[in-house]
Specification:
By secondary structure, the protein is α/β, with parallel strands linked by helices. The protein has one domain: Rossmann fold. The chain has five helices and seven strands; from the N terminus they run E-H-E-H-E-H-E-H-E-H-E-E. The chain has a five-stranded parallel β-sheet, with helices on both faces. Strands 6-7 form a two-stranded antiparallel ribbon. Helix 1 crosses helix 5, helix 2 runs parallel beside helix 3 and helix 3 runs parallel beside helix 4. The termini are far apart. The relative contact order is 0.17.
Length: about 150
């Protein structure tokens, strides 16, 4: 009897200059149908986007070396490859000006640190159209991601 097919993994790029934050996000997301690539600054995030054509969602820390999350988001929105790619901004600086700027640039969500990993997972799942089955975080049904 053949083994059931492995569910499709949705690729998430997480850019945060604090390695422990990236590891927490990676651990939580990989409990579900996500695979995670970590970047530690804005330049590395753009390089990862350019090299990984299957990224389905981007999570950007607002304040990072080289390029801020807003800088990366602005470049994403100016490039036709990434204009519609969902993007969650994460920040310890919950200033209203940053929130307005991120949303004006086309952020999908703006979350202030400390955030709940469960809430972040739920928001990522919602943005990518992941449907949780009953009580299982490992059994997933995927529907077509929103465009």
């Amino acid at each position: 009897m053949p083994l059931p097919a492995e569910p499709e993994r949705l690729h998430v790029l997480v850019a945060d200059d604090e390695p422990h934050i990236g590891r927490i996000i990676k651990m939580k997301l990989e409990q579900g149908p996500f695979s995670v690539t970590l970047a530690y600054d804005g330049r590395e995030a753009l390089d990862a986007l350019a090299n990984d054509t299957d990224v389905a969602l981007v999570m950007l820390d607002l304040m990072m070396p080289h390029l801020s999350g807003l800088d990366v988001l602005a470049r994403m929105r100016s490039d036709t490859r990434w204009q519609r790619l969902p993007c969650i901004i994460l920040t310890a600086a919950g200033q209203e000006q940053h929130h307005r700027e991120a949303m004006a640039l086309g952020a999908s969500e703006f979350l202030t640190k400390p955030f709940s990993p469960k809430k972040l997972y739920a928001r990522a799942a919602d943005l990518l159209g992941v449907i949780e089955t009953q009580d299982s975080t490992s059994a997933q049904e995927l529907r077509t991601p929103r465009s």
